[in-house]
Amino acid sequence: MYQYNVLLILQTDFKKIVLYCTLSIANPSNLCIISLEVGKSGEKWGQLPAKTLFPGVGLRVVTAFAGLSGELQAVFLGNYEHTIDTKGRMAVPARFRAELGERMYVTRWLDKCLALFPTPQFEKLANQVSELSITDPNARSLRRVFFSDAAEVEIDKQGRINIPARLRQFAGLGSEDAQVIVTGVNTYVEIWSPDAWEQVQDQVEEDPSSIAAQFAGLTGF
User: On the CB side of 82, how many CA atoms lie within 13 Å of its CA?
Assistant: First the structure.
């Protein structure tokens, strides 16, 4: 899902209403920012375009100011079992496709898994990595690993992407048709071999206090 901060100024015949809200939408093309003139009472209200913020609502939207941060933020949740074939083709979960877009980036990630990023998120992370000091050997290593193994991939008509062989080998996905675990991690997606995913889950179950400690550090917990 995409989350978008919106400030709305709505006008009825009797009063003006100012609302601040966060919209969650599956496809950003459904979000239409509009500005309409307010007519006098009894006049026919302007028709809103299809797929707008408030289709069929008895309110006139005077102005809509969207995005305090100026960005749409994808949210990926849940995990799914999929198959990757001998050519490296893997179906992207249907719930993730709209947020990832037609083109995305896959690269090696922490804990021997792969990460799949929508283009805006990858570019944001790439800029942060590029800003690290080249005099720091750890930063240089991160830049090499992050960029040298990254690949831009495109989703085909069957909803599949092609994962390069070197990345499949790194993540232990094998050369034969195999099952993979595709899991949402809020702003990006991880791709795991079932064995590696099971080990991660076992570690969590063996030491739940470490997870509890992380939650304890969050505001409100």
Answer: 21
Residue 205 vs residues 209, 210, 215, 221: alpha-carbon distances, Å: 9, 10, 15, 20
pTM: 0.66
> Are 76 and 186 in contact, with CB atoms under 8 Å apart?
yes
Tell me: the pLDDT tens digits for 19-46? 555 555 554 444 444 333 333 344 333 4
Cα angle for residues 54, 25, 81 (degrees, 5° grid): 150
Q: What stretch of H or E contains 129?
A: helix 119-130
Query: Can you tell me the distance from the alpha carbon of 74 to that of 3, in angstroms, rounded to the nearest whole number?
Result: 7
Strands 89-91 and 160-162 turn out to be antiparallel
Can you read off the two tokens belonging to residue 121? Answer: 């998120």
For the record, the structure tokens of 180 come out as 């993979």
